[in-house]
Structures are given as C-alpha cells and as structure tokens.
Amino acid sequence: SLSSSEQEVKKGMEGLKKEVEELRKLMQEAEMESSKEGQEFMKAVEQTDADKNMQNMTDALKQQQKQQAASEGKTSESKLAQMLDNMQQQLMAMTGGQDDKVKKEMRMAIEDANVLSEKQEELIRKAAETSPNSLSAREMATTQQDLVSACAGLKKRITELAQATPFIASELQMLINQATQSMELATDGFAARKSGQAIRSQRDAMVDLNKVSLRLMESLDKQKQCDKGGNCNKNISKLESLCNKQNKLNQQTKSQCNNPSFNPSSMSQKAREGLKRLAGEQGAIRKSLQELADEFGQSRQVLGRLEDIAREMKKVEEDLADGEVGPETTERQLRIYSRMLQASRSLQRKDFTNQRKAKTATEQLFAVPPSLPAELLNDRTKLEDRLRRYLGDGYPPQYEEQIKAYFKALLKVESQRNDLQQGGTTK
Questions:
Q1: Would you say the pTM of this structure is higher than 0.85?
Q2: From its phi and psi, is residue 424 left (phi > 0), alpha (psi between -120 and 50) or beta?
Q3: Are 140 and 198 in contact (CB under 8 A)?
Q4: What's the pLDDT tens digit per position in 337-388?
C-alpha cells in the first residue's frame, strides 16, 4: 500500500521539474537568464536524481523488500534535503535586495497608521458636535465603518511584514485587533445613537493606532540597525547552527516514531531511555536559543519571536521526557524548525560590512513657516470662547492642561500688548 504513496511523491518531483522549465522560460522573457544565482537555483532541481531513488523504492515496496525500500527512501530524502538547501541559498542570494522593499513597506505601514489615527481624531471632533438624535449620527456610523475597512488593510500589511522580517512584534497584531474592535463598537454606538459610548470607543481606537505607529517606527529602526551589521551579523551563525541541530533532532525523533517496534502504550526501557535522551537534546537547543534571545538585548521583536519558539520547544521536551510522542510531536518539531529557518532568513543580509562610505554634504532647502495671523490675538473674548469650546470637546485630561497653557500664553501676550498701547508705547 505504501508503493502508491511513493509513486505520488515521485509524480510531485516530476511536476517540480516541469515548473522549473517554465521558470527558465520566464527568466528568459525577463532577460534574467544571465543571473548566476537563478541558474544555480534551477540546476538544483534539474540535476537531482532523487526521483530515480523514489522509483526504486516504489519497485522494492511492490516486491515487499522492506530493507531495500528503506535504503532507497533515505537516499532520496538526503538528495531532496541537499536540493532544498541549494535552492534556499540561491534564493537568499537573489532576494538580498528585498531589504529596501521591507523598509519601504514599513514606512508605508507607519504612514497608514498615522493617517488612520488622524481620520479617527477628526471623526471624534465631529462626533462631539453631533446631536445623538440627528441624522448625522447615522452618517457617523457609516464613516466609522469605512475606517474599520481601512484598518483591515493595515492589518494585512502588518501580517505580510511579519513574514518578511523578524522585527515585527507580535504586540502589533494585538494592537491592530484592539483598534478594529474599538472602531466596531463605535459604529454600533452611533447606530444605537449612544454617542458618548461611541466617542469613548473612538478614543480607544485612536490610542491603539498611535501605539501601532510607535511600534512600527521602533521596528524600522531595528531593521536599519540590522542592515548596518548590528546584532544580526553577530548572531546569525549561532541561529543557523541551532537550525541544523533542530533539523537533526527532528530526523531522530521521526525515525524513533516510525520504528515498527515503537509502541507508545507499551514502550521498552530502551525506548524510554532513547526518548529521554532526545528530550535532553531538545532542552539543550532550547536553552541555547534562550541565551541567543538574551543577546539580542533591546530588540524585543526578535526577542519575542525566539521566546515563542522556545516555548514550543519546551512542550516537545516534556512530551519526549514523558514518552507521549506521536504525529503531533513531530509536527510541532517541524513547525519549530520552519520558524527558526524563517527567522534566520529574515536576518540574512548581503551588505554586512564595517567599511564606511564617504558622502558629500548637500544643501538642504527648507521653507520658513508663515507668521501667525494678526486676527488670532485681536479679541480676548474670542480666545476665551475658543478655550471653552476646546475644553468642552472632551479631550483626555493630559490634553486639557496643554490646551489651558496654550491659551493662557495667548491671553498673556494680548494683555501685555494692550497695556503697552494704553501707556502710549508701541513696540
């Protein structure tokens, strides 16, 4: 029964080779056939003969020659691992220029968060001036719903960034989810003509969006530091070494579980000791990963990601020590390895160097802002009215003190000017 499954694997390999043929045509059309990395990427697939071992394994299985089938399968697996390693190396070499793209996407995400925050703040002002029973309340609900849709776009952008760089903190997803939920509560509040409740939810959403912007700016700063050869350059080799160790441990665990004599419900003492040994190796990898996480210092985005992986390792370690292993354990180990590879690839940079590049200073042109309009200080009553209106808009307490200080300064300037005019002195 296994021979048919192996035959399907062989067909998948043949399909992969056909896809590479299509890729070669596309590269020729794009005038990229001279790319050395691209050629090596395609050769890694075209030159492997793992499919021959797959066919040999299929034939051996049909003839019930288990030992020969297992040998051919291991050879095929080794060749596939080598092929994949070559493909990954060439892919990283080709995509080294993606760094600038990631930083550009980060800047766009920051801009989106700031724009959403500004629109939310503007909507709060309008809501404070709108009567709960007016038709405008319905319009407010519609406008707020539009912001919810825009927030979903920002969430998608952040999710894509998290896959491209390790410097996107998991906290960002939580913040954007909270902002979206607050916006939806505000929409429901306006629909139910509960403007007070809606405005509170709007303010919560604005606060979370501001936090998103701040966290994204921190992520962009860490990405720039990584490009300059900071912690990334120092710790990449350590992370790659841990990736290799985890992959080796995964293979050992899988081999143990696939052993025909392995039975979780009635394991021999030798089998239990073998699993405990694997648990010890998993624990050693976990401790090394935690030490590496500490070396990243204040880069809490990378720190958080590595700590998440370490928690997954802890679960595998406990399962192995308790003898509670099975497909779930091997799948968890595979996820751990995949996440470690993703973190390692994200930290890879082609332009790590300690060399400095000289630049010639350029003249920076800037526009002098216009002076304040004269009518702004003409009327004390208008200033007092504006102060009362702003304080009545229901801004947070920390803003009220700033507003009072601002108008107090304006009133003081006007009072001094009036005193000078009354004394017959002009300035």
A1: no
A2: left
A3: yes
A4: 888 887 776 665 433 333 444 455 555 555 666 665 555 555 555 656 666 6
Q: Which amino acid is at 205?
A: A
How far are the Cα atoms of 106, 164, 272, 298 from residue 220, in angstroms, in the given order?
Answer: 6, 13, 48, 14
Close Cβ partners of 68 (under 8 Å, ≥ 6 residues apart): 56, 60
Which residue type is seen at 217? M
**Per-residue pLDDT tens over the stretch 294-343:** 766 545 556 557 788 888 999 999 988 888 887 888 888 888 988 888 77
Cα→Cα distances 349→87, 226, 337, Å = 17, 8, 20
User: How many other β-carbons are positioned within 10 Å of the β-carbon of residue 101?
Assistant: 11
- The DSSP symbol for 143 reads H
Calpha distance 310→325 (Å, rounded): 18
Q: Rounded distance, CA 218 to CA 212, Å?
A: 10
Joined together, the tokens standing for residue 29 give 């059309």
